[in-house]
Write a structure and sequence with these properties.
Strand 13 and strand 14 form a beta hairpin. The strands form 4 sheets. The protein has a 9-stranded mixed sheet. Strands 5-4-15 form a 3-stranded antiparallel sheet, with no helix packed on it. It has 15 helices and 16 strands. The protein has 3 domains: 292 residues, no CATH class; 120 residues, no CATH class; 56 residues, Arc Repressor Mutant, subunit A (Orthogonal Bundle). It starts with a strand and ends with a helix. It is α+β, with helices and mostly antiparallel strands.
Length: 483
């Protein structure tokens, strides 16, 4: 019997507001000593009153619009009650039956196919404190609580159970992160905890329409972890069903170093949280004028930018998709073209550099392109030197490495490192040397084997470390060989 997986995601993204969701404490707590970004409100002191952060609501509307959601006209906050140690108040201010938005969708591409994934809701809530588990050298264990994170605005995105594979889930998360970064409302860094994902997964016989019990998976802190946890859990559930067992609704945690999920607790239902309206916050009226004003400020989003790159610059879809998937990369690409004539040829040349040599060095150093020392005008200068014949492509890559390391211009690197195309009399002795050292290739060429000339040309290029002009070198070789 064949099975299929039913996957839905619950994603939380911290918003990049200056202050927290319901108080004036700074939301930028990264690197701060524990419990220094706190006040009576986010500490959950009795008698304190929350106040809604307008910028957080604006950011949430931006995200909901980018995800094709319907924006609610009337919104209220609710108390979600649960007794966890990272929740000092004993409840979290969230949204339940009147969320900020509903009924959205996001198109993803996985396994070479495009697919639309439904979004049930996008709403606002507050983050909780962070627990730090400590074990002493003597073997004693205890837990510390850092309240700096408590109250930071959180955006929750809940998908429909439209995902069928771990690859689709990973593609959705990566696409969502790209959109949040384009909007400038979240860093989307899973490793830092600013983007978190819980997955609900169940399996059923292929072709069935039943909705079996779902398992929620927690503790996944990377795209790779999400993929591996879903893959493991799907296989675990299939083995249970094949063995005649029954699945139970529960919450399981991903243990990355073992590559398994383990039981944590039975899965809660909505009524377990005893939701009720937050009495200290009035309902919000989201005017249509405000929504349209925010819509008018949305940037060009990744899909639209990809399509424009294909249409405007005639880029292949593959190039356009990779460039548009990173806003800094796409911005760099267009900054380069703004310094050149934006022809399809120039666009493809810049794309080749960005997706080739530039990407290789960025990956090696762990940098993002907006952290690189090479600025758009410097890359354009390098490209023009290749076009004018001042550098071969091989030599240009050597020059670019020096530029990447130091931030110097191509002209400075060439002058200081003695790099440039050899095209004159200095080539003749090298050509004669190669001919003398390779009698077999010379004999092959004279017998009509034209590929022997390419071998000899390669030997000259090797001697000059790529500095010889290929066309001039080939002409000198033919001359010396008596052609």
């Amino acid at each position: 019997m064949e099975f299929e997986a039913i996957i839905g995601l619950e994603i939380h993204a911290q918003l990049l507001t200056k202050s927290k969701m319901f108080c004036s404490c700074s939301a930028d707590y990264a690197g701060a000593p524990p419990n220094t970004h706190v006040c009576p409100v986010c500490l959950g002191m009795p008698g304190t009153l929350p106040v809604i952060n307008r910028k957080a609501v604006e950011y949430a509307i931006m995200a909901a619009l980018a995800l094709n959601c319907e924006i609610s006209e009337y919104v209220k906050f609710d108390r979600k009650n649960y007794p966890y140690p990272d929740l000092m108040k004993g409840y979290q201010i969230s949204q339940y039956d009147m969320p900020l938005s509903r009924n959205g969708w996001l198109e993803i591409e996985a396994q070479g196919k495009r697919k639309r994934i439904g979004i049930i809701r996008v709403h606002l809530e507050e983050d909780v404190a962070k627990l730090k588990h400590v074990t002493t050298p003597e073997g004693e264990s205890y837990t510390l609580i850092d309240v700096n994170r408590s109250g930071v605005p959180l955006l929750e995105i809940v998908t429909k159970p439209d995902l069928r594979t771990p690859e689709e889930a990973r593609a959705f998360l990566m696409k969502l992160r790209t959109i949040l970064r384009y909007l400038g409302i979240s860093s989307g860094n899973m490793e830092e905890g600013s983007l978190r994902c819980d997955a609900n997964v169940s399996v059923r016989p292929l072709g069935s329409d039943i909705m079996p019990p779902k398992v929620e998976i927690k503790n996944m802190n990377s795209f790779k972890a999400v993929y591996q946890a879903l893959e493991y859990e799907i296989n675990r559930q299939i083995e249970i069903l094949k063995g005649g067992g029954e699945l139970v609704q529960e919450t399981r945690g991903w243990v990355e170093d073992k590559g398994i999920t383990v039981p944590q607790r039975t899965k809660e239902y909505a009524h377990d949280y005893r939701y009720f309206p937050e009495p200290d916050l009035p309902p919000l009226h989201i005017s249509r004028e405000w929504v349209e004003e925010i819509r008018s400020r949305l940037p060009e989003l990744p899909d639209a930018r990809r399509d424009r790159f294909v249409e405007q610059y005639k880029l292949p879809e593959y190039d356009a998709g990779i460039l548009a998937n990173s806003k800094p990369l796409a911005d760099y690409f267009e900054a380069c073209l703004a310094l050149m004539e934006p022809t399809p040829e120039n666009a493809k040349t810049i794309s080749n550099w960005l997706l080739g040599e530039f990407a290789r060095l960025l990956n090696l150093t762990g940098l993002e392109i907006d952290q690189a020392k090479v600025k758009p005008e410097q890359l354009v200068e390098l490209v023009r030197k290749v076009e004018r014949g001042e550098l071969t492509l091989t030599l240009a890559k050597r020059v670019f490495e020096k530029m990447f390391e130091s931030g110097r211009s191509a002209s400075e690197v060439m002058a200081e490192e003695g790099l440039g195309v050899m095209a004159g009399e200095e080539l003749k002795p090298l050509v004669k040397r190669v001919i003398e050292e390779n009698p077999k290739a010379v004999a092959d060429y004279k017998k009509g084997k034209k590929q022997a000339l390419q071998f000899l040309l390669g030997q000259v290029m090797r001697l000059t470390r790529g500095q010889a002009d290929p066309q001039i070198t080939a002409a000198l070789l033919r001359e010396e060989l008596g052609e």
